[in-house]
Backbone:
């Protein structure tokens, strides 16, 4: 069980499978009505030290968590916003991005049900509708991607192959945020459910914090485990009150 929140904690949340339940399609997810306000309340209670660290874009986060804006990193570390009012800083456009998307559209056309999600600085190839082809699709994506240069990486997540620029990940995003005035000196807790969250877990632990695994996926790094997004949201909801009680 997670210990009661402490005033020096910094919370880093993955989104899909962690804050919200998965859906059959990336745009099929539903954000609980009160989630943005709950995040904002925790943000206030923790001096601003609450961030979203996702494979999604920051633009997606802002539009779906409106009016709340948090420090954030999107597209697996390829873009970062160090404070709510700071600009979003992207990496330079990866050379492989556009040509790889074009090639994959052709290469994967014979697998009905495969969906290539366009993201400005990364790519996601979804095979939730045809999980039996996951291995073959992974092989094809890797083969084509590697032919486009050394600075591309492939991560097999939940019914998805995430293609990202090497050298950037959720761990580098946590490290960068932890160097800012809002987060510095705090104990980071990274909440995540998928293999793409392992870098975030590692960095949070390296900096003296905890990894909070969500859901059933096995990981060597979990300090604590919550069974599902509903438990993450229940924890989040309790943060302001518990901190207030501890202070009084
Ligand atoms: O880092 P996250 O916040 O967990 O985002 C990871 C990816 O999430 C989305 O895909 C996943 O969720 C979809 C909706 O539940 C689901 O249909 C899909 O199978 C999952 O892989 C999103 O589409 C990706 O861009 C994110 O990278």
Residues:
């Amino acid at each position: 069980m997670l210990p009661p929140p402490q005033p020096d904690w910094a919370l880093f949340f993955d989104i899909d499978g962690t804050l919200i339940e998965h859906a059959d399609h990336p745009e099929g997810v539903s954000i609980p009505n009160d989630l943005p306000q709950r995040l904002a309340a925790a943000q206030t209670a923790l001096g601003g030290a609450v961030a979203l660290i996702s494979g999604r874009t920051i633009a997606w986060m802002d539009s779906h968590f409106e009016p709340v804006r948090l420090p954030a990193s999107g597209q697996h570390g390829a873009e970062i916003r160090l404070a709510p009012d700071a600009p979003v800083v992207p990496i330079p456009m990866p050379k492989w991005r556009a040509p790889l998307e074009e090639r994959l559209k052709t290469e994967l056309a014979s697998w009905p049900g495969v969906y290539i999600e366009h993201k400005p600085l990364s790519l996601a190839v979804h095979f939730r509708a045809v999980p039996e082809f996951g291995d073959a699709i992974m092989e094809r994506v890797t083969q084509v991607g590697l032919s486009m240069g050394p600075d591309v990486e492939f991560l097999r997540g939940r019914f998805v192959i995430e293609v990202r620029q090497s050298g950037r990940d959720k761990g580098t995003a946590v490290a960068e945020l932890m160097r800012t005035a809002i987060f510095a000196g705090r104990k980071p807790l990274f909440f995540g459910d998928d293999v793409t969250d392992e870098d975030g877990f590692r960095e949070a632990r390296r900096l003296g914090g905890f990894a909070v695994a969500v859901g059933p996926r096995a990981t060597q790094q979990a300090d604590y485990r919550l069974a599902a997004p509903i438990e993450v949201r229940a924890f989040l909801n309790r943060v302001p009150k518990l901190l207030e009680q501890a202070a009084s």
About this structure: The pocket of L263DTV3 is lined by residues 14-17, 22-26, 29, 54-56, 117, 124, 126, 128, 157-160, 162, 194, 196 (CB under 6 Å). DSSP finds seven helices and twelve strands in the chain.
